[in-house]
From TrEMBL, chain A:
The keyword DNA damage does not apply. It comes from Streptomonospora halophila. Belongs to the bacterial solute-binding protein ModA family. NCBIfam families: modA. Residues 1-22 form the signal peptide. This is Molybdate ABC transporter substrate-binding protein. Gene3D superfamilies: Periplasmic binding protein-like II (3.40.190.10). SUPFAM superfamilies: Periplasmic binding protein-like II (SSF53850). Keywords: Metal-binding, Signal.
TrEMBL record, chain B:
Residues 73-276 form the ABC transmembrane type-1 domain. InterPro entries: MetI-like, MetI-like_sf, ModB_ABC, NifC_ABC_porter. The keyword Cell membrane applies. NCBIfam families: Mo_ABC_porter, modB_ABC. Keywords: Cell membrane, Membrane, Molybdenum, Transmembrane, Transmembrane helix, Transport. This is Molybdenum transport system permease. It comes from Streptomonospora halophila. The chain crosses the membrane at residues 31-53, 73-99, 111-132, 152-177, 198-220, 258-276. Its main location: membrane.
Length: 261, 284
């Protein structure tokens, strides 16, 4: 019994290995110029906050260029920067703040200067019923208001610190969340009365109210994009960086709550 | 090593323990087992070697003395210990029910116990928020009736750790209970011992190695807990920021700090586990 099991498992492994070695055909019937293996894959490392817009733009990019595939790795900007520094294979890096991009560029890992393509501003996200009656940034300093901020190590936390300093406010959060989505979730679930998140997160969520505040402009996050020095597809990578700055892309970004210049 | 005399300090121990030293009865070295075993060991140890190689030794001292590190370490050790205590208090009776009684739906209950092992801890954290959060299934009543809100408190850290760690204890103790010879319990019962006395004086001592092994597993799991903790308890230095959370956030800024923090956690847990093993946990 046991030996039969082992034989079966071994046979399964062999089959799986054979399948993995089989040549990959173009997924749809439209064979490109080079037969079944004409696929060019562009690998884009992008800040998690770009997930929705980049996926939509990636689909368009692929449709306009048959035989091209865009693969994304979405994560926190600094995490991505670490991965790039450790040699992760990426063609393009889009960061949610200029500091992280500067680190990568400073290490000589980018080809050419990074370009800012969108901008994001902070909003106060409150649960739909706004239990603590938050109306302005200064309300967050009230000790009865439970606030979630991003940790200062991540871009949204740095931006939050900046606006709070600009407004000369002392806010003690109940939690310093690891990324902006975690902060948003806490507000969506009503576990906190308010969270400082991006306008794009409020727009994407639909389950929180966003409150604008004048100080937000002082700590707007600029999103730079750059082709990486180690890019396997530098030409395609440049096409992508131009594509995300096109008028068509601007519409997608505006819909999502970004500001394009 | 001669075949006739077993090492003097080695007492009879359950066969399933991790072997401290390679001992072979016949003269031949068991290559068919040793090769995959060594590959397995190398696979587990190699990442650790990577950490050691990249550790910023010159600045180690100054980084260790940061008050945040001490706060996070203290919180980690106390919450993991509290979580283990809770897991033993609740988990041993649960394991006993699963191993020794027959009730409808027992298979389902056993499967439910393993749920926290299977689901990603981050999802576990969200589930805890949905159940025990301020607006959660049960949490809303805790808030309304007692003014008690769990999230963002050290208690929430313990709750998250118990959630992920208790299954290890239950499974370990249930296995020990099933393996234990029931005739001792029956003999005690025929001699007039009540069920409570049998449980306390016969069953528990018999499965003590299993409880200790499960407790150590649970403690180690609680100590390394990240996903459920950061989701359910949040992250605030000194209150809910345990070592794994501190490591994660340090990673965002400087991998070197993260490595140092990891080494601290590793060192402390190794010291404690080795000390425990020599004192009590013969079964490990």
């Amino acid at each position: 019994m046991a030996s039969r099991l082992i034989t079966g498992a071994a046979a399964g492994l062999v089959l799986a290995a054979a399948a993995a070695c089989a040549p990959v055909d173009g997924s749809d019937g439209s064979a490109g110029s080079g037969g079944g293996r004409a696929e060019r894959t562009l690998t884009v490392f992008a800040a998690a906050s770009l997930t929705g817009t980049f996926e939509e733009l990636g689909g368009r990019f692929e449709r306009e260029r048959p035989g091209t595939r865009v693969e994304f790795n979405f994560a926190g900007s600094s995490e991505l920067a670490n991965q790039i520094a450790e040699g992760a294979p990426a063609d393009v890096f889009a960061s949610a703040d200029t500091q992280t991009m500067d680190t990568v560029a400073g290490d000589g890992l980018t080809a050419g200067d990074p370009v800012v393509f969108v901008r994001n501003t902070l909003r106060i996200a409150v649960p739909p019923d706004n239990p603590a009656g938050v109306g302005s940034l200064s309300d967050l300093a009230d000790s009865g208001v439970k606030v979630a901020l991003c940790a200062e190590e991540v871009p949204c936390g740095a931006a939050a610190a900046e606006v709070l300093e600009a407004a000369d406010l002392e806010v003690t959060p109940v939690s310093r969340e690891r990324d902006v989505k975690a902060a948003l979730t806490k507000a969506e679930l009503g576990e906190v009365d308010a969270a400082l998140v991006y306008r794009t997160d409020v727009r994407a969520s639909g389950r929180v109210e966003g409150i604008a505040f004048p100080e937000a402009e002082q700590a707007a996050n600029d999103y730079p994009i750059a082709v990486l020095d180690d890019a396997a597809r530098p030409g395609l990578a440049r096409e992508w960086t131009e594509f995300v700055r096109s008028d068509g892309a601007a519409e997608v970004f505006d819909d999502a709550g970004f500001t394009t210049s | 090593m001669t075949r006739a005399s077993p090492p003097p300090e080695a007492p009879a121990r359950p066969a399933a323990r991790g072997s401290g030293r390679l001992r072979v009865r016949s003269g031949r070295f068991p290559w068919p087992l040793a090769v995959p075993a060594l590959v397995g060991l190398a696979f587990l140890v190699l990442p650790f070697a990577g950490l050691l190689a990249r550790a910023p030794w010159p600045t180690l001292g100054t980084r260790l003395l940061m008050p945040e590190v001490r706060g996070a370490l203290w919180l980690s050790l106390t919450t993991a210990t509290a979580a283990t205590a809770v897991a033993v208090l609740l988990g041993v009776p649960l394991a006993w029910l699963l191993a020794r009684t027959d009730f409808p739906g027992r298979r389902v209950v056993r499967a439910l116990v393993t749920v926290p092992l299977v689901i990603p801890p981050v999802v576990g954290g969200v589930a805890l928020l949905l159940a025990l959060g301020r607006r959660g299934l049960v949490g809303r009543y805790l808030d309304a009736w007692f003014g008690l809100t769990l999230p963002f408190t050290p208690a929430a850290v313990v709750v998250a750790q118990v959630f992920v760690a208790m299954p290890f204890l239950v499974i370990s103790v249930e296995g020990a209970l099933r393996a234990a010879d029931r005739r001792y319990e029956e003999a005690a019962a025929t001699l007039g011992a009540s069920r409570a006395v049998v449980f306390r004086r016969v069953t528990l001592p018999m499965v003590a190695p299993g409880v200790l092994a499960g407790g150590v597993l649970a403690w180690a799991r609680a100590l390394g807990e990240f996903g459920a903790t950061i989701t359910f308890a949040g992250n605030f230095p000194g209150r809910t920021q345990t070592m794994p959370l501190a490591v994660y956030l340090a990673m965002q800024e400087s991998p070197e700090s993260a490595i140092v923090l990891s080494l601290v956690l590793l060192g402390v847990s190794l010291v404690i586990l080795i000390a425990l093993r020599d004192r009590w946990v013969g079964a490990l």
